[in-house]
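Hello,

Our lab assistant flagged a job as stuck in the queue for most of the afternoon. It eventually completed. Since we weren't sure the result was trustworthy after the delay, we are filing this so someone can double-check. Below is the sequence as submitted and the structure that was eventually returned. Let us know if re-running is recommended.
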Amino acid sequence: MNKTSFYDEIRSNKLKTTLLIILFSILLLFIGYVVGIIFFNNALLGLILAFFISFVLIMFSYFNGDSIVLKVSRAVEAKKPQYTYLINTVEGLAIAAGIPKPKVWVINDENPNAFATGRNPENSHVAVTTGLLNLMNREELEGVIAHELSHIKNYDIRYMMIVGVMVGMAVIISDFVFYGSLFGGGRNDRDGGNAVVLVIGIILAVLAPLIAELIKLAISRKREFLADASGAKLTRNPNGLANALKKLRDYKGPALRGASKATSHLFISNPFKKTDFFSTHPDINSRIQKLENM
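-- returned structure --
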């Protein structure tokens, strides 16, 4: 079986994610263009409107997203001496990764899982469940923490925040087109070319949210592979994370109480145990195989 290097995996996933982001941006700009044509007879105005709403939503998520996620997840800050080992593990791996030590949080839940959040390495957080702390040995816990720190170092949280806002924008603008057309919105006379644009706009309004969501999920899956590879590079021990993922795969207990569809992409393992075309996470067996081939 061919071995792949950490760097090959990292390079491949960065390229694929960049291509998906470009595709996503083209889709959003096209939606704004159609809105401008249909409702304002001015494509540029539609593009400006799409940009302005996106900017406002991104700024709100940028400064408030982490606190909302931690509150929804019912996380409490980890304190010494109870969580000395966890805090020291995060601090040591953060030093090795060359990033500031994130704040460490614990979620009182027997479901083993973990996530990272924060707008940048200077304002970042790592949260783990009590179930994960009880299940993992030292090497496995280090693998999980390295995975989460890699999300921080790679700016994955900010990346996915922007993608999430773009999905929201696609839904908002598509609804604007769809319902506006139903109730006679738009300043154009509906004949000739304008009627064609309107039909295209309605079709786009129906399909765009689905297309946007599929692109977001594809990007999320690529960032998980990237964090796996980066985490393995950080610890120089791919088997630690691979063995941790095996334990997460084989866990049969209760679902994670604080998880939701809005936050599921943050966790190292899909809290809903769902792996298909609409999953936020790649197949866990594929992740394990890639790590074992490094």
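-- support follow-up --
The delay was a queue issue, not a problem with the job. The result is valid. The first strand starts at residue 75 and ends at 77. The mean pLDDT is 82.
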